[in-house]
Amino acid sequence: MSEELIERAKKALRITGATTNRQLAAIERWHDHKDSIGKQASAELKTISAGVIETPHMRHHQEIFERVRKRTGMYLAGETFPEVVGFVTDYDYACEGGTLCGFTKWLVLRLRFGSNLNLGWPALVLDAAFPGSRNPEAELNAGGAAAQRHAIATLFDLLTEFDEVRSKHDGLKKVFLEYDQWERDQRSRP
Fold this sequence. Notes:
By secondary structure, the chain is mainly alpha-helical. Helices cover 74% and strands 0% of the residues. It is built from twelve helices and no strands. α8 crosses α12, α9 (121-129) crosses α11 and α10 (136-142) packs across α11. The longest helix has 24 residues, at 144-167. The protein starts with a helix and ends with a helix. The relative contact order is 0.10.
């Protein structure tokens, strides 16, 4: 790879505001240790320079989330929706907010809830899990283990769907632009 391509990738990331320390480190590792890093750094750089915000390191959460989905009780103290929400939230904090960046906005767009702009993503996930319910949280609590499992499955399904959207070229940028337009449309309604 040429110095020009590396600089173009860095510039593109800075312009879009998508630069993270991990992404810049991948570029620097590739540049400084071309021979020793090998295929992984090269793949990361190609992914970054293509404008896709996804590296092998960032895909790691998909594997972890799939394990927790399949064996929730093995990883968490309780097999409840609040426990899983806590786990996903803590994981996102550990990843400096990169895992769930844009997730709430994407959920609002996907679910088209004009009146629920102030809800956090856990409440939006419950709305998706129990559509038409006047009180999804009450339905979750009254439904026992089956309702908890359903809400957990819905959360992980939505996270997988969001990852697919986000991993496309300019996927996260498109989410933010579409949300911005949607929000303006909501404000202009009488």
